[in-house]
Design brief:
Number of domains: 1
Strand content: under 5%
Radius of gyration: 21 Å
Number of helices: 16
Helix content: over 70%
Distance between the termini: 16 Å
Largest sheet: none
Length: about 425
């Protein structure tokens, strides 16, 4: 066994992937822990009803921010990866994306703030949600910036900055403020999150462009738009799969049910934080290999990364399936009602993990349109099925529909990877 490990790690690319994945995983563990404690703080400090309002408002702005980013997330990642050594090009790509995205984010912020009372009253039938929506509206701008900056940092393998930018810093600041000032309302927590994102987005943008060299030239805007357009649909549908369920639950059910589902969803996502860590390392590699025409490198890296994922994530999946009441009970006794929701969502995330980085494989190798089709199918599947299942089966139905279409999305992506790139990531035991 040891000799096999030594043989695998003797390959330079595998060694680089493993070492960087370990670094990314260490930071991701910190990020996952921070996200877990942030959700714990919200649930404990605010209670089920107020935390339901907060999570509902957060789901809405996350979805709106994804729309506002116009698909530039993975476009920034792909093109920056290919020219990571050219500072002028890196900065030009990021600034072009921000120039396109920020005006849209600002418009969404103004619309959300203005329509918040009407939306809370007429769509969600929850007048108490209005202030939370108004105070969290500026987070649309902050989220748009941190996601794009994080992609730029990730493309340059600056993982120590990229992960905190996207997932840690604003939650840490907001959580600290909630504890220090003993916040007990969703609207105040929403305000602190918006302020935290304002601070972190400004800081990490400055950090991302600091000390860049002047080498390179501007990338053609047409190339960026050509990549961003299909990515836009991919990201919107991906975000729909992730965030539409709590929003739809908010329409049909009481705020407490939103809280139970949202907490279960965030705990279930801990199963895929290893996938996210590996993605941080392999996505730029896929892009770089594709730019060089190295199909063998793409295949070897993809299959090796799936092995890492299966070995790392299986114990977490089994623990969550075995002790869901314990995990949900950490957020408060009433949250134990979400134990079955957690188990259902974990199964969906388990499929997400064992299929590997199939989404990035397609997007980083120029097959964005295949991934767009996959996400359209899963996204519309969620948008159609979740309202029906929620109406008849409550939050459990929403969880089942979400988990099913997460699985469908990843299995369809596996099919297209096999069709376009010639290998099956599910057959991770095959010789690399």
């Amino acid at each position: 066994m040891l000799s096999k490990v030594k043989t695998v790690l003797s390959d330079t690319e595998h060694r680089h992937t493993a070492i960087n994945a370990a670094i990314a995983l260490s930071i991701r563990v910190l990020g996952a822990g921070m996200a877990f404690f942030f959700n714990l703080i919200i649930a404990r400090q605010l209670g089920a009803e107020q935390s339901g309002y907060f999570f509902l408002a957060l789901a809405l702005v996350m979805l709106l921010s994804a729309v506002a980013r116009l698909g530039f997330d993975n476009t920034v990642l792909r093109f920056t990866s290919a020219d990571a050594g050219y500072g002028y090009t890196v900065k030009a790509i990021l600034n072009f994306a921000l120039k396109c995205v920020l005006p849209v984010s600002f418009v969404f912020t103004v619309i959300t703030y203005t329509l918040a009372p009407w939306v809370a009253e007429n769509i969600f039938n929850k007048p108490g949600l209005a202030k939370s929506l108004q105070y969290i509206a500026p987070a649309i701008i902050g989220l748009s910036v941190v996601f794009l900056v994080a992609m730029s940092l990730q493309a340059r393998h600056k993982l120590i900055a990229s992960i905190p930018c996207q997932n840690i810093a604003h939650f840490m600041l907001c959580g600290a403020a909630i504890i220090v000032f003993s916040v007990d309302s969703a609207s105040t927590a929403a305000l602190y999150l918006s302020l935290s994102l304002g601070i972190t987005s400004s800081f990490f943008y400055w950090l991302s462009i600091k000390n860049l060299n002047n080498n390179g030239e501007k990338t053609e805007p047409k190339k960026l738009w050509h990549s961003a357009r299909p990515n836009w649909f991919i990201i919107m549908m991906n975000q729909s799969v992730q965030w539409s369920a709590p929003i739809i639950i908010g329409v049909f059910l009481v705020a407490e049910q939103v809280a139970f589902f949202s907490v279960a969803q965030r705990v279930a996502l801990l199963t895929s934080f290893i996938l996210m860590a590996v993605n941080l390392v392999v996505a730029p590699k896929f892009s770089a290999f594709h730019a060089k025409g190295d199909d063998v490198g793409i295949r070897k890296t993809a299959l090796f990364s799936v092995r890492l994922l299966v070995l790392s994530a299986l114990p977490i999946v089994l623990f969550m399936l075995a002790f869901p009441e314990f995990l949900m009970g950490l957020f408060g006794e009433e949250f134990r009602q979400g134990a079955l929701i957690l188990q259902i969502l974990v199964l969906g995330q388990a499929v997400n993990v064992v299929t590997g980085s199939v989404g990035f494989l397609l997007q980083m190798t120029g097959h964005e349109r295949d991934m767009r089709l996959v996400t359209l199918i899963s996204g519309f599947g969620v948008l159609i099925s979740v309202p029906i299942f929620t109406k008849f089966f409550g939050a459990f139905g929403a969880a089942a529909a979400t988990a099913f279409f997460i699985s469908v999305q990843n299995l369809l992506a596996v099919y297209f990877v096999k069709k376009r790139l010639g290998f099956n990531t599910l057959m991770f035991w095959q010789k690399i």
